[in-house]
Amino acid sequence: MKPAAFFSFPHPNPGIRRELVELLYTSLPQVIAISATSVCGGVALAILSGDAGYALISFLIFVTATVRLTSLYRYKAHAPNLSDRDVVIWERIYGICAAAFSVALGLLSYRALRLGDAPGAWIAFGLSMSYCVGMVSRAAIRPWIVLTAAALLLAPTVVAGLLRPELPYKIGAVMLMLFWITLREASHHLSTAFIDRLEAKHALARQASQDFLTGLPNRAAFLSALLNANGPIAIVAIDLDDFKPVNDRFGHHMGDNLLQQVARRLAECIGNDGLAARFGGDEFMLLRRVESGAAGHEAALALTRQAVMALSMPFLVADLPVRIGASAGILVVEDDPRASEDAVPELLERVDRALYAAKRAGGGRWKWSVEEVAANLEAI
User: Which CATH superfamily includes the segment(s) 219-377?
Assistant: First the structure.
């Protein structure tokens, strides 16, 4: 069995991977049950046989079970604040803990078979199968964990069976290897079907919150982000100045391509610290958290200038350079927008008034929603 076979089930989508890892860590009741049963089984074998090997293995089972349970509790405490990189690390932690417990439990069967302890072998093998069946329920989530843990669980039993002189033990060892191969195939099909469903669910969610043409968040996503924003925020409404003539001249297909180019430039302007959304037609919105007071107004103005300047540069439409330009309205909100849902329409109306004031002034410029603020900042 090649090691690569254990790790052939990645998923590059961070959102889906996060959901899969969260499902892994919902196994607490199951882990508690198999941990308690395994420790009790190992201790019982040690007491009944008086074998030091059983006692040592029981201690290893207890230690690995304790570490595993601790990791489950710690994940719950850290889950809300995990980055995508952290999620990958916690997936590996789950896999390592499951693998360590598998080794300890597998050694119990190995010891029983090496001692020729038939009752002990039955108990140990029963515990192994109970654990294996429990892991199969996770086969659709992260198969590499299940397959690695199952291999480490069954390997000691397979080795001990092959070392026994009796033919039935050797046949049993071969049957366990075939069982692992069957488990791998079943995991592959279960995982494919399960992830297909998750991808379909995420695709539907994206359609509800993403503009189909530009790939930017749509109006609903922007309103949700605005409602859930905290602290002082800058809202910038942007409308393209000469989009319609370009659309009429080159056709809707080229117009769509131009909107996609606009979206990419706005996404670059806002970066990872804010949100750029398509509000509809050729109107876009920017949202970014800023500092309070004059510093926040300066940051909002700098963002607006950057966006307007970016959209004033030529675009390539049908292999021809085209200039369109843009106008913008700026609003800095010091209060928390989520304090009242009724405040959101008022905020949008205020920034829209500033936007259309900029368009009436000739386009290619910006206006503040409060003109006296603009007067104070004209020198910036």
Answer: Reverse transcriptase/Diguanylate cyclase domain (3.30.70.270)
